Amino acid sequence: MVMDTSELVVPFVGALQASISVLITIFFGVLTAQFNLLSTQAAKEVSRTCVRMFLPALLIYKLGMNFDKDTGIRYLPILFWSISYQLVSLAFGAVACRVFKLPNWVKLAVSFNNTTSLPLLLIQSLSTTGVLDVIIPEGDDASKALDRAESYFLVNAMVSNSLTFALGPRLLRPSDEDAPDGNNKGGEQEDGEEENGMEREPDGIIDEETSLLPQRAVHPINRVERRGYKRTMKWLESLPPWAQQFLEFSYQFANAPLLGTIVGAIIGLTPPLKRLFFNDSNDGGYFHAWLTTSIQNVGDLFATMQIIVVGVKLSQSLRKMKAGEDSGAVDKKSMAFVFLTRFFIWPVISIPLIYAFATKTSVLDSDPMLWFAMMLMSSGPSAMILVALTDTIGSPEEEKMAIAKFLTISYAITPLICFAVVGSLKATEAATRQ
């Protein structure tokens, strides 16, 4: 059967609109830096805020709204699929980096794709153009189907972020793998001692971090914190080395996006809480008008602000290029490897695999939006959150700017995802007829 030209053009236009939206947002980030509205240091702080506040708020809102005791089970295959394709990509990237002598960051670029900002923009664009109508079941509300698709991508984003920040530092700095252990322990103790000396004594230093509580209330709190810290450290030191390493590695997964996912799942799976947060005010939703709306507003900042930070990094790179300084090099071999894997290899693998699971087994829920989302999850450009990771671990400025340039090029060719979109749409439409 020959595919009609319009069947490729319409998804292509949707993908083009989504990618142009991202590129324009990156351009605004460049302008922000060029006019000195946001410094490099401020961009680092914004990047951390995106990961630790905006993304958890977005997860709480979207998952809380879409989770319930009847549909919660449909999210389990997403967890398994997200972990599987990212770990396979990681192994593939590690082998390629060793064989072709690619930079360390290429492992992360090929392993962790954009699981939040681009998919959300893409889904909205495709919905606006009417492309998704063919896979929305008859009688299903289009806006609810869109919300479900967004929640599927957000669960994938939670897994991706957890793996990125748990494995990323070790992958980017394999030679310094053990260094952070001692530094963190010492840093935590020093921070605690500094706080105790600075905030708790009447004649100590006073600054913006000084506690506003009376000294009588602060001193007992500090004593309890110190005792708890010392007892915890003593207990950890009493464990065998393998147990200490396991707990330390497990602790890295306890990040803000994961906590946001847990809170959203608890709200969604607890009927009284879901009613309080998401029902209308006159129907028992006493938190909806003020608390839920606030969480939604904060969460909606994530995608835009994370992309603005990339623009700031790109601006810094462009300035150094103009001055003839080292602005971070991105070799063609690295770009070709990542682009080929992300835009072509994974769609070829994921689309028939998810189609087979949807039609030949009962593993997946009978929601076409779930099938479509899972087919697309492993495709697309590398994650914007790589910028936040380099800020977190203190990577060299040249590496940060190289990643910013690489990400900008990635989003310039993002319309290539239209082939994965068309394939996913056709496979999902065929699966609904089985």
Summarize the structure.
With 434 residues, the protein is mainly alpha-helical. Helices cover 75% and strands 0% of the residues. The longest helix has 31 residues, at 142-172.
Molecular structure report:
It contains 18 helices and no strands. Helix 2 (40-66) packs parallel to helix 10 (256-269) and helix 16 (385-393) packs antiparallel against helix 17. The two termini are 18 Å apart. Residues 174-209 have low confidence and may be disordered. The protein has helices at 5-34, 40-66, 76-100, 105-111, 117-129, 142-172, 179-199, 215-238, 241-251, 256-269, 271-278, 288-299, 301-322, 332-360, 368-377, 385-393, 397-412, 418-432. It holds the Pfam family Mem_trans. Keywords: Membrane, Transmembrane, Transmembrane helix. Residues 173-202 are annotated as: Disordered. One of its GO terms (biological process) is transmembrane transport.
